[in-house]
Design a protein that fits this description.
The protein is built from 2 helices and 9 strands, in the order ααβββββββββ. By secondary structure, it is mainly beta. A 5-stranded antiparallel sheet has the order 1-2-9-4-7. A 4-stranded antiparallel sheet has the order 3-8-5-6.
Length: 129
């Protein structure tokens, strides 16, 4: 069951942005009521997402990101390209995926809480001697 969940999420989450020339706003701008900025600097944006049962955020984008589900639940994810996935995410699940655009709805019966660490574009990377 867990392997099927991870495979389904990977298929959905690893897809590239389908409309890179017309990006949606970042999650915390599109849905500030669901995303709290915990840290922002030149390298990363760290967000806390909270979705109560039945709530949905607005369509938004993310850069490459790592997501830790402090409290999981059932999520329905609508990708920018139209693909929909329903995932039962366990508490403590950690995942990484590339930049993408999507909308998330809590289709379960418990609050979902996630910490998102999103990479910003790397500029002027210094090489190690």
């Amino acid at each position: 069951m867990r392997a099927a969940l991870l495979a389904a999420i990977s298929l959905c989450l690893l897809s590239p942005l389908s409309h890179a020339e017309n990006p949606l706003p970042p999650a915390h701008i599109a849905s500030p009521e669901h995303y709290q900025v915990l840290l922002e600097n030149e390298q990363v944006l760290v967000l806390k997402m909270v979705l109560k049962p039945g709530e949905a955020d607005r369509p938004h984008r993310h850069g490459n990101e790592t997501v830790y589900f402090q409290q999981g639940g059932q999520l329905t994810i609508q990708e920018d390209g139209g693909q929909t996935i329903v995932a039962d995410v366990p508490d403590g699940h950690v995942m990484w995926h590339g930049a993408w655009q999507h909308q998330v709805r809590n289709s379960g019966d418990r609050e979902v809480v996630a910490i998102i660490v999103e990479e910003k574009a790397l500029r002027d990377v210094k090489r190690f001697p």
